[in-house]
Design a protein that fits this description.
Elements lengths: L1 H11 L4 H11 L4 H13 L2 H15 L6 H22 L3 H10 L7 H10 L4 H23 L2 H9 L3
């Protein structure tokens, strides 16, 4: 039971999210489907709060003595990611956000996606849906990777 709590908590950590939670669950021998569901719930839990409050908190803290540099860094990272996403996506911003969150690369994920959506003034419902679908996609990719699917495919299709 404690291992499931750890999976849940890891999936809530910024930058690690379910990209770390699912491989952890497999390293400790938990069932994949149960771990996937727990990681999805943990990863999505902070998303509405990030969307609604992160921008306000970051702007507020950006000029404070001890936290200002970090808050400014986070704000600039979110704005930069959001602008880059918007330039590439144009009118396909929903799909771009979904793929941004869904392809498990460093610096992408639910936290950054929700912040970018907030900074881009995307509507709440579309943002949450795009992030949720992206988290589901990232979870499937990480589950497949953790189950060894990509290694098995590489062994089958590798040139000899």
């Amino acid at each position: 039971m404690i291992q499931y709590l750890i999976v849940f908590l890891i999936s809530m950590v910024p930058l690690i999210e379910l990209r770390g939670a699912i491989p952890y669950s497999q390293a400790v021998g938990l069932p994949l489907l149960t771990s996937y569901i727990i990681a999805i719930v943990g990863n999505m839990l902070p998303v509405p709060f990030i969307y609604l409050f992160a921008r306000k908190v970051l702007v507020w803290g950006s000029d404070k003595k001890f936290i200002g540099k970090f808050f400014t860094f986070c704000l600039e990272k979110g704005e930069k990611g959001g602008k880059k996403l918007q330039q590439k996506a144009g009118k396909g911003l929903f799909l771009a956000l979904l793929l941004f969150v869904g392809i498990p690369l460093p610096g992408t994920g639910a936290w950054t996606g929700a912040l970018a959506a907030s900074l881009l003034d995307m509507d709440f419902k579309s943002s949450i849906l795009a992030v949720m679908l992206g988290v589901l996609l990232a979870g499937i990719i990480m589950a497949a990777a953790s189950a060894g699917l990509f290694g098995a495919l590489g062994a089958v299709f590798a040139p000899k």
